[in-house]
Amino acid sequence: LIGISILLLIVPMIVIGMTSYQKSSTSLEQIGKTNLQNSVEFTLATIEAYNSEVSKGTISLESAQEKVKGIILGEKNGDGTRNINASIDLGENGYMIVYSQEGTRIAHPSKEGASAWDDEDENGIKFAQEMIKIANNGGGFTFYNSALPNNKEQIEEKVSYSKVDPNWDWVVTASTYMTDFNQPATELFNIILIVSGISIILGVIIIWFSANLITKPIIKVTEQMAYLANGDLTKELLLIKSKDEISRLADAMNLLHNNLRNSMKKVSETSETLTSHSEELSQSADEVKMGSEQVASTVQEL
Asked: Which residues of 161-198 are buried (b: 16+ CB within 10 A; e: fewer)?
């Protein structure tokens, strides 16, 4: 009973937890990819707006390009790095990148001006070339592995959405780690694990307590039946306070106990009566014997 009850408790919770995690993870990945795509489209729209100003002659091309870099990443620091713009939310480790057709990083938080054309991940994928190729084919996603910025020893899967800007021929890319997508789902899964663990522990305790409430009276009835089977009628009657079938079984056992005890009492009384009569018969027989002996002695004398 305990094993089956625990299985009925654990299996549905595991199924519900895994299903919820899978669905939430899939949904969050889709939302994250949409966010990457929207960020690229926003950047392309920003480039379009500034390119119009360049065409009107109100701003130089160099200034317009620097403005766009400042919007999608941040103003350039003295050491050549850029602070990631918090208003463009691409996850904890996500950011915007702009490549040239030759793979040079036109805009990057820390490697601006460096070439990424020959860079490879652990699987030998030249991800910059893949991004540029996909971007020139109308835009799309690229998946590759990369070390986390704050932990170079931890390699995680990374996803990027790239598309070419027709005005400046930039390959605009929004990139982040899959763990950033799945972080809310992982937190949800951890909560499910904690709640499931607490529920299972409480469930086991309740099931154990309930099983003992059922089995203890049954054990008492079984022991009482063993005593009756061995002819021991000296035990006290069962006192079970529950209002269920076990209580009715105990009442029937007590009735049997009383009936057997009464029967044995009657048998004992009858046996005592028979013993008394037997003693009287034995005394009468002795008297008859004595009388017979006297008669025989008298006959012998005669």
From this structure: bbbbbebbebbbbbbbbbbbbbeebeebbeebeeebee
